[in-house]
Amino acid sequence: MKAPDCDGPASDNPAPPLLRWPGHPDLPLAPGQTVLAALEAAGLPWPASCRNGTCRTCIGRLAAGRVRHTIPWPGLSADEKADGCFLACVAVADDDVTLAGPGA
Ligand code: FES
């Protein structure tokens, strides 16, 4: 039996990554949960339409952190990606991320 660790939580049960959007509550992200799904589950407004990474309605910009897209060719240019843009409907985060907001 493993002894309790008085210095903090066990490292084999890490906290989920947090989705931060200044002015809104921090949201824990479930594994594989898209940014859009987390925002909608919390009742936070974010534009969306196709929900499959093609229409760009859900485009947003990151203030900090990184996301990965669940489709191989999300509708973003290389310059947009380099500028922190992402498509919330097909974007997942493995670490904490901070949103700047919707729009490119
Ligand atoms: S809702 Fe269409 S690309 Fe995300």
Account of the 3D structure:
The protein is α+β, with helices and mostly antiparallel strands. It has a single domain, classed as Ubiquitin-like (UB roll) (Roll), CATH 3.10.20.30. It is 12% helix and 23% strand. The chain contains 2 helices and 7 strands; from the N terminus they run ββαββαβββ. The strands form 2 sheets. The protein has a 5-stranded mixed β-sheet. It has a two-stranded antiparallel sheet with strand order 4-6. The structure holds FE2/S2 (inorganic) cluster. FE2/S2 (inorganic) cluster binds at residues 48-51, 53-58, 87, 89.
Cα end-to-end separation: 51 Å
Q: Going by CATH, what is the homologous superfamily?
A: Beta-grasp domain
Structure classification: alpha+beta
Global morphology: globular
Order of helices and strands: EEHEEHEEE
Question: What's a concise summary of this model?
Answer:
This protein is an alpha+beta fold. The protein has helices at 35-41, 78-82, and strands at residues 18-20, 27-28, 59-64, 68-69, 85-87, 91-92, 97-102. The chain is built from two helices and seven strands.
Features:
binds FE2/S2 (inorganic) cluster, Ubiquitin-like (UB roll), alpha+beta, two-stranded antiparallel ribbon, about 100 residues, 7 strands, 5-stranded mixed beta sheet, about 10% helix
Topology (SSEs and partners):
Elements lengths: L17 E3 L6 E2 L6 H7 L17 E6 L3 E2 L8 H5 L2 E3 L3 E2 L4 E6 L2
Parallel strand pairs: 1-7
Antiparallel strand pairs: 1-2, 3-5, 3-7, 4-6
The structure holds FE2/S2 (inorganic) cluster.
